[in-house]
Design a protein that fits this description.
740 residues; alpha/beta; 6-stranded parallel beta sheet; 5-stranded antiparallel beta sheet; 23 helices; 19% strand; elongated
Length: 740
Amino acid sequence: MEETRTPRFSPGRRWQRKLCLLFPWLAVIQFLVLLAQCPQGLAEGAGQPKNVLILYSFSRREALDSGPLQAAIRSRVSVPVNFYVEYLETQQFGSPGYEKGLREILRDKYGRQKLDLVVTVSFSALRFAAEFHDKLFPGVPIVFTAVAPERLPKPLWPGVTGVTLPVDIRGTLDLALRLHPDTKNIAVVAGKSEFENYWVEATNAELGRNANKPNVIDLIGLPTDQLLQKVSQLPLHTVVFFQLIPGGSSYMVIDTYDVLAAIAQRFPTYCIHNYCFDHGAMGGSYPDSDEQAGNTGELAARVLSGEPPERVPVVNGHHVRAQVDWRELRERNIPESRLPANTLVLYRQPTVWERYEEYIVAGIILIVIQTLLIARLLWHGARKKRIEAKLRESEERFRVMVDTAPALIWTLNRDGTVIALNRRTAPSSGGPIVEPVEETWMDTIHPDDLPAVQLAHATALKTREPFSREFRLRRRDGGYQWMVEVAAPRTNGRGEFAGFIGSTMDVTDQKLAQEALRTVSGKLIEAQEAERSRIARELHDHICQRLAILSLELEQASESANGSAGHILEMREHCNDIAMDVQALSHELHSSKLQYLGLVPALRTFCNEFSEKHSVTVHFTYEKVPASLPIEVSLCLFRVAQEALRNALKYSGTRDFSVHLSGTDEGVELEVGDSGTGFDVEAAILSRGLGLVSMQERIHLIKGSLSIESRPNCGTKVTARAPLHKFVSVESVGQFQELR
């Protein structure tokens, strides 16, 4: 005896539902494999779907589900399949006008539809489709299923093939007599339709051949109320064979299944077809529905592929199996030992293990997991103690390192308050830089640097980005020293911004060294200018005068000489050219106008001479330039303009330049620009060309700033700014020592 269980309680089916979650992915993988193996065939078939019409003989859709049949066909056909399903009223066949009306409905609905196959379920639909084949579905093959082989005509209709259904009336009768050995009467309940009449005759014939020959009571074609009344009057030891077709509400006063349930409450009820389960019927001997669907799908696939139905032989079903409702066995106290071997028991209640299998397994797993977690917690506790000991040692070691580091190390919280500070001491004073308990961090910063430091702090706390800056910090002895501060943002354990951590180092010695270097650089530039002035005076006062005298002598010689006068005049012209070049060189080395007339006249003269000498155009403009400028500022801006114009002439590729000099509230600003090819400023700074270095050194000497704006093919603009109120001359650089 074999058992099965309903979907509601079956643990095996629960695992099936879980496995079903994998089916879509397996289907996708299978489709991809098939696509890789036969991409051309799939591409061709994908655009040609097949249209299949399914005709069911019965109108009760819940009794006959078309899903398994459609799935069986689709699984065996490589092209898309469109299904159209029509449910017929078997009880109405033979009624006046029903078949005619049905033909008109199907003709209107599918007359213009190209059908590739008609599948009929049960004999009534097959007979109707075959009889009106040429009028309704001309040329469309027919595949039938669920038809008893005894009902097929010989020969078979043309264009028809299919799968027969074994109806085991004897097996159902044997099952009923086996489970109810005291049976004396068998009541046959059926309607008057052609379908029901056929099976009533077949049932009566089988009952007549039975060796026990029980008394047969026919309850055929009765109205519902009379049928129920007759059933109530049946004698004891009666078994009911129920063969009413599940039909529409117009056929009976109450629903067929309600009639079945009412009869099953009084007498054990069996059906020769398997549509009675879960409505009170005991069961019966039924064919394998999976075999029927598979065979039908196989034949339909062959016909859809183009094989003529006449060449596809009819497949006869063979397998039948006794099936019973476990709940009805319990209701009538029938032991399962009476069941035939290999009986399929449906709706069996699960055992405690079967019902709570998932919960029991989950509980065991949970207990095992909790045990492992407890063991892991104990292990983590011991490990945590070891880690904490190492952490304390590491913190102490880090604290000693921080306190002895040659830098002031500090920590800020998110609102900018100092929350930690090491015990750094200043080597120059021998005392701590700041005592956090007695005074705040900002109180030790030089008043001139305090606004910039506060602004930098506020900006950093807002942007939460690393920063660095220089400022002066007060020592314990009251003096100040230069400090460099570098800081980076820090986060807490949740990854949130918690403030900054940074270090501050004493760079006073480096500052002094830089200023000393600038002093040396300034002195070198000053010496260079002095040497330029001396050479310019020598060229102007001696060389130019001697060249002028030589020019006069050549002029006198040309007047006294007759034959060689032309040659002497040519020599005189060369001498004048040399004199002019020497004079221009003298002005370039040292402009006397710069010294006596100021920056504007000197720069205008230089631009004119530069234009004439190199045949270019230099546009010189100025505005609001102070009449009197320190000689260091004038000389610096004059040299920057010279160097910028030389570089523009050499590298810009253009012949048009501009020089603009203007006075501002803070000082004097010089702009030298061109619209040439431009260059990469960062690369030029890294290359450290002499011209750029010279301009930077001169501007730094007067505490000014130099900026260069240029991009390839976008021109260049050099801007030099000379502050007047912050100007410190070269001679006063040594006063930096007073800052200490």
